[in-house]
Amino acid sequence: MTESVLVTGGTGGLGTAVVAAFADAGWRVVVPYRTREPVGAIGVRADLTDPAQVAAAVEVAASDGPLKAVVHLAGGFAMGGRVHETPVEEFEAQFHTNLRPTYLVSAAAIPHLIAAGGGSIVCVSSKAAVHPFAGAAGYVTSKAAVLALVGAMNAEYGGDGIRVNAILPGVIDTPANRESMPGNHDTWVPPTNIAKTILFLATNASTPITNAQIPVDNP
User: Fold this and answer.
1) What is the pTM of this model?
2) Strand partners for 42
3) pLDDT, tens digit, for every residue of 29-62?
4) Cα 14 to the chain's mean position, in Å?
5) Is the separation of the CB atoms in 108 and 55 below 8 Å?
6) Residues with catalytic function
7) By the 8 A CB rule, do 200 and 206 touch?
8) In this structure, are residues 129 and 159 in contact, taking their beta carbons and an 8 Å threshold?
9) What is the C-alpha separation between 118 and 210, in angstroms, rounded?
10) pLDDT tens-digit profile of 115-151?
């Protein structure tokens, strides 16, 4: 029976590469989306900050074949001032964008992963979570919180056969990033390289790996 994967953020620059990698490997791919329908996957319109809509999207992912993997790509980035210059609303907005969807989707999907005999959750954090830079306290802190959530879920569900890992990319070489940050892109990470890592973490080939924080960056 074909295994299913739920990929959030599956219509973005990284998401399209991840969707293609799983589809090429024979997975049934389900992608929640808000405006732009995914290519090469089953699309489900959903706001991933809304618990009811998240639950409905997860039900679609688990409706045909076992749900064996969840990949969290949805998130966002915002620069600002230093901490004393940043309104708390802007700080908290990054948690709403980067942490809330990861929590809600995981919480809805975990019972299905348990029912399927276990599976894999892969979360995208950021290199900035462990190597912070100035002017993005909300982003840095929310991505560090994703790592803490990975550790918590590993502690709670490792005994159920669920592996939870995080990848920490540097700057990803996407059209949007090239437009917003023109210049030398030699050290940026191609989305296809990250997609290969995520696919590996979702498969049985990576069974010994859990609670890992894996850098995905060019030297």
Assistant:
1) 0.93
2) 30
3) 999 999 999 999 999 999 999 999 999 999 999 9
4) 10
5) yes
6) 139
7) yes
8) no
9) 13
10) 999 999 999 999 999 999 999 999 999 999 999 999 9
